[in-house]
Amino acid sequence: LFSGNYTCVASTRVYNVSSTVPVCIVGQPKAPTLTKLYATSSTSIMLEWQPAEQEPFTNVTGYIISYKPESLYKPQFKKYMDNIPSSVTAQLVTGLEPAKTYVFTITARNRVGEGSPSDMKSASTWQAAPSEPIRLQVVQTSPVSIYLSWWRPKYLHGNLKKYQLYRDSLNWTQDQIVQELVNIDSPFISHTVRGLHPYTTYIFRVRAANVENGTELWGNFSSPITVTTEIQAPSVSPLNFTVHQIMQRTLEISWELDGTPVHRSVTHFCQLSGLEQREMKCFAQEHNVSPGPGIETTILRSWD
């Protein structure tokens, strides 16, 4: 059946009667052609299309955009918009996920209904900053190193490229350091921080980054953890060790630190009970000291 003028004729023995009417056959519209797809952000993709040349009387009244994630599981298409005016030839699709590839089609509609969808085309959203790494923890400590581990972020939002491990010291004001770890593909990361000070408290945090067009997209830092390195024996002896009698049964003992980091000093005292008996009594007295040079003093009294 085709569009055109159709004539109906009624005949009798006496005369003929005819009537001509125009008939318009309206079919479903042809699909437009998707000409360009490109990401505009980590959550949006722009679609542009070229309308198809339609048959007479099949004017397009609107367009429908459908999309789905590109996946091995072959999910069903979802309609993004089904009321795009026929005069529009471009549409921004928003609300997508970062670093994900989507497949799109566009369909024309008219008063008869929807036509066939266009050929499928795909585009990928930009990467975004990942979420924070999780479960940062201490595995092992020594006087000069700390062995840490953590898991990669729950939401990658792209191809993870690097980590930043930030450390700060509660004891040393100029010990704020950031270390970068690159090209790590494992979901579980471990790292040994070396060159630390003995018996020193440190705070560690870690964050991850993706890279999009040369721009580093850093996520948030993980929750901080606090850890103290182990105690180490001093490398030098105290200087200028002196003993002074300040009362009959009281001695003043003093010594000087040379600036070598010492976090705890232990002084050992011995006393002869008599030259004839040569009996010696010894004990230890412990002192907490601050790092850096200075003079430490203690008073020794008789324990009788």
UniProtKB/TrEMBL annotation:
InterPro entries associated with the record: FN3_dom (IPR003961), FN3_sf (IPR036116), Ig-like_fold (IPR013783)
Any one Pfam family match given in the protein's UniProt record, by short name: fn3
Domain annotation Fibronectin type-III: ranges: 31-128, 132-232
A GO-annotated cellular component: membrane
Gene Ontology process terms (BP): cell-cell adhesion
Superkingdom classification of source: Eukaryota
UniProt KW keywords: Disulfide bond
Protein's name in the database: Fibronectin type-III domain-containing protein
